Amino acid sequence: MQQGRMIRTERRHGPAVWEFRWREPGPDGTRKHRRTVIGSVEELADESSARQAIAGLQVDINRGDARLRAKPYTVT
């Protein structure tokens, strides 16, 4: 399970935006960097409001995590 990283990115034209970045396994087994723009700083004032906006996205990202698909086992 991963939390990802929320960063504020300046733009050449227009207001700065909040970007969510994470890594996921690619088809060849290497980790691929992914990112998506969440919204402008005018829409989302701070990082906590931006994180609230991506709560559903984090669930989808973590759904593919191999650690969550593993079956639990008991050691006796």
Offer a quick outline of the entry:
The protein has 3 helices and 3 strands; from the N terminus they run βββααα.
Distance between the termini: 26 Å
Q: How confident is the prediction overall: mean pLDDT?
A: 79
Which regions are unreliable across 5 or more consecutive residues at pLDDT < 50? none
User: Count the strands?
Assistant: 3
Arrangement of strands in the largest sheet: 1-2-3
Strand content: 25-35%
Order of helices and strands: EEEHHH
Number of helices: 3
The whole-angstrom Rg is 16 Å
- Overall number of domains: 1
What is the approximate shape? flat
Biggest β-sheet description: 3 strands, antiparallel
Overall structural class, as computed from helix and strand content, comes to: alpha+beta
Helical fraction equals: 25-40%
Describe the protein's architecture and organization.
The chain has 76 residues and is of the alpha+beta class. It has one domain. The chain is 26% helix and 32% strand. It contains three helices and three strands. It has helices spanning 47-53, 55-63, 66-69; strands at 5-9, 17-25, 31-40. The chain has a three-stranded antiparallel beta sheet, covered by helices on one side. A hairpin with a 7-residue loop joins strand 1 (5-9) and strand 2. The longest helix has 9 residues, at 55-63.
Task: List the defining traits of the structure above.
3 helices; alpha+beta; 32% strand; flat; 76 residues; three-stranded antiparallel β-sheet
Write the layout of secondary structure elements.
Layout: E1 5-9, E2 17-25, E3 31-40, H1 47-53, H2 55-63, H3 66-69
Antiparallel strand pairs: 1-2, 2-3
